[in-house]
Design a protein that fits this description.
It is a single chain. By secondary structure, this protein is an alpha+beta fold. The protein is built from three helices and nine strands. The strands form two sheets. Strands 1, 2, 3, 4, 5, 6 and 9 form a seven-stranded mixed sheet that branches. Strands 7-8 form a two-stranded antiparallel sheet.
């Protein structure tokens, strides 16, 4: 076994929808989530994320993206064609792989998973917090202001696909 720390990898699924009656490239919205827990409470700018999570060497990235979406949103992944948006190495060294999926879910129906942590720190009290405390549909411009910096590249990649008309609903994803 190597003494070097294994590179952290994460995978996610970015849902998008187009306004009713809009032609290809006429605009779209993305579904993003506000990170839960006390660190992110009260923050808006750079405090939102694409539903995603870490995975290990024995899990395929697409399977991790599906699992993490279902854990964070609390609902099954909608049917449709997954569009690969590629990878991005984040400032902390994590590599994130994201797919896009055209679908329309009611953000208010989310039932996020939870995590437990000591809070306040040093108190010995364990508290449970939602992984994501709320979801919202945003224009790419709104999402760019809200998303953590390292995930904004996926908005640009999705915009290229939508504007080029290369994103069309088809079969189920990976």
């Amino acid at each position: 076994m190597s003494s070097q720390k294994r590179a952290t990898r994460s995978a996610g699924l970015l849902l998008f929808r187009r306004p009713a009656g809009a032609a290809d490239g006429a605009g779209f919205e993305v579904l993003i989530g506000h990170m839960g827990g006390p660190f992110w409470a009260g923050r808006e700018s750079a405090a939102w994320s694409i539903p995603k999570g870490e995975y290990g060497p024995d899990e395929e990235p697409a399977a991790a993206a599906r699992r993490e979406f279902e854990e964070e949103f609390g609902r099954p992944v909608p049917e449709g064609e997954w569009v690969a948006l590629g990878e991005s190495r984040q400032s902390g060294g994590k590599t994130v792989t994201v797919w896009a999926l055209e679908a329309d879910l009611d953000a208010a129906t989310a039932v996020p998973g939870t995590f437990t942590m000591e809070w306040p720190r040093g108190s010995g009290v364990l508290r449970e917090f939602p992984e994501v405390d709320r979801f919202a549909w945003c224009t790419p411009q709104e999402a760019a202001e809200r998303l953590v910096t390292g995930q904004r590249v996926f908005l640009d990649r999705l915009r290229e696909h939508v504007e080029d008309g290369r994103v069309t609903p088809a079969q189920d994803g990976p």
